[in-house]
Write a structure and sequence with these properties.
Layout (H helix, E strand, L loop, with lengths): L3 H6 L3 H18 L15 H36 L5 H5 L2 H20 L5 E2 L2 E2 L5 H28 L2 H19 L15 E4 L4 E6 L1 H11 L1 E5 L6 E2 L4 E7 L11 H7 L1 E4 L8 H15 L7 H18 L7 E4 L5 E4 L4 H16 L3 H15 L8 H19 L7 H15 L1
Parallel strand pairs: 5-10
Antiparallel strand pairs: 1-2, 3-7, 4-6, 4-8, 5-7, 9-10
Helix pairs in contact: 2-5, 2-6, 3-5, 3-6, 5-6, 7-10, 7-11, 8-9, 10-11, 10-12, 11-12, 11-13, 12-13, 12-14, 13-14, 13-15, 14-15
Length: 423
């Protein structure tokens, strides 16, 4: 069964549905009887109608090939210039899917019309659904309009600001709505805990905590997931641990491990369902790629850091870490999560190691830390994590930057971070 994210990422789902809709619309319009003098009726002979439908179908084949070619160019550009993890953002782009769907629907509608227009029972006839032929003309103009819209949309969507804005929007949606609330600790894994293996290799995409808690409640168990949402797990390795919630052994637990495993969805790629770190990783990749010797574009890296500042500002107000759900009867489910310090060390650390020699990049990272320091958040380890990253940034910049004058702004930004932490 396909998940909602998989459906959004698939380029064929909407076009397939549009074909079904076009065939249904054609059947309905073919049943309508209009006089030849009606303004909505096609003014021509059956042969004219068949020629028109053949021409529309041929035109749509060319248009569809053009659309797919332009899409491939955009995918190649985003993959090589920015990050391969951005490909799915273009595949799940709804305007692209709608334009392709409109053209495919027009092709299917026109081709299906050739079976009915001018032919009845295998013999030629002068009667044909004139309104349905008019519908093909309308779909043709709609498709051509969508083609112009697609060219404009594609030109804007491959701009660096638009790409970063999409990543920022998707990640904010996860932080505000899909991220499992942390702040708990959970019970430590008992020495007698049963290790349940992962049924397949892949990335943990979705953890259905309510289902896990229901299964744990039925078996009187405590459950702790080993990987965090978004992490890779190998088939046969430990996916989760289970152990009795009380010293008394549960009466029946034979089906509980299977139910718990089914509550953890493992897929072939990372998604935005519960994995906010995936969006952070995309922006970090763009910054690192821009700082590579092959690209050498520090300003793009600064733009990525500014987008990360927005995400970290919102993330700092959320309770992070382990998500724990408990039942009054003693059942418990613990899902590990990222702490603020881990987010900061991973994302800021990657950019710091690539851009330590560029003062503008270091200063942008210190401004990010100042933004985080100015927020009151529930994570008690946040100030220490910010202070640690600020210290590493200054130390690396002082080692890599040769000109003392270039370090003035870096030291000033570091002082602003310390002042923010003091406040």
């Amino acid at each position: 069964m396909m998940s909602r994210e998989h459906v959004r990422d698939s380029l064929w789902v909407l076009p397939a549905l549009s074909v079904v809709g076009a065939l249904g619309a054609g059947a309905v319009l073919s049943a309508a009887n209009l006089d030849a003098g009606s303004p909505l009726a096609f003014q021509g002979t059956p042969d004219d109608a068949r020629t028109l439908l053949i021409g529309i179908a041929g035109t749509m084949v060319t248009v569809i090939a053009l659309l797919l070619g332009l899409t491939v160019v955009a995918l190649q550009l985003s993959s090589t210039q920015y990050s391969p993890r951005l490909l799915r953002n273009f595949l799940r782009d709804r305007p692209n899917q709608l334009v392709l769907s409109a053209c495919v629907a027009t092709f299917a509608y026109s081709t299906a019309g050739l079976y009915t227009v001018g032919v009845s029972g295998g013999s030629r006839t002068t009667e044909f659904p004139r309104l349905a032929v008019t519908g093909a003309i309308v779909l043709l103009f709609v498709s051509l309009g969508m083609l112009v819209f697609f060219a404009d949309h594609l030109g804007h969507s491959i701009q660096i600001d638009s790409i970063m804005a999409v990543v920022e929007r998707n990640t904010l949606a996860v932080i505000r709505g899909g991220l499992l609330e942390g702040g708990g600790t959970g019970s430590p894994v008992a020495a007698t805990a049963l290790a349940v293996p992962a049924p397949r290799s892949g990335y943990v995409q979705v953890v259905r905590v309510e289902r896990m808690l229901a299964a744990a409640r039925g078996g009187g168990l405590r459950v702790r997931l080993r990987p965090r949402p978004g992490e890779h797990v190998v088939a046969g390795t430990t996916l989760l641990w289970i152990w009795p919630a009380t010293t008394a052994r549960p009466a029946a637990t034979a089906t509980v491990p299977e139910a718990l495993v089914h509550a953890v969805h493992i897929g072939r790629e990372r998604t935005f369902d519960q994995d906010a770190a995936f969006g952070f990783r995309q922006l970090t990749d763009m910054a690192c790629k821009a700082l590579s010797p092959a690209v050498n574009d520090p300003y793009t890296a600064v733009q990525a850091i500014e987008r990360l500042s927005v995400l970290f500002r919102v993330l700092a107000t959320r309770p992070l870490g382990c998500h724990v759900d408990r039942d009054p009867g003693g059942a418990e489910v613990t899902v590990p999560g990222w702490t603020f310090g881990e987010y900061l060390a991973t994302m800021s650390g990657l950019i710091r190691r690539y851009g330590a020699a560029e003062p503008t990049v270091v200063t942008a990272l210190l401004r990010l830390l100042s933004t985080c320091a100015a927020v009151d958040g529930p994570d008690p380890g946040r100030p220490a994590a910010i202070e640690e990253q600020a210290r590493l940034l200054v130390e690396d910049a002082e080692r890599e930057v040769r000109q003392p004058a270039d370090l003035r702004e870096v030291r000033a930004a570091a002082a602003a971070v310390r002042a923010g932490l003091d406040r």
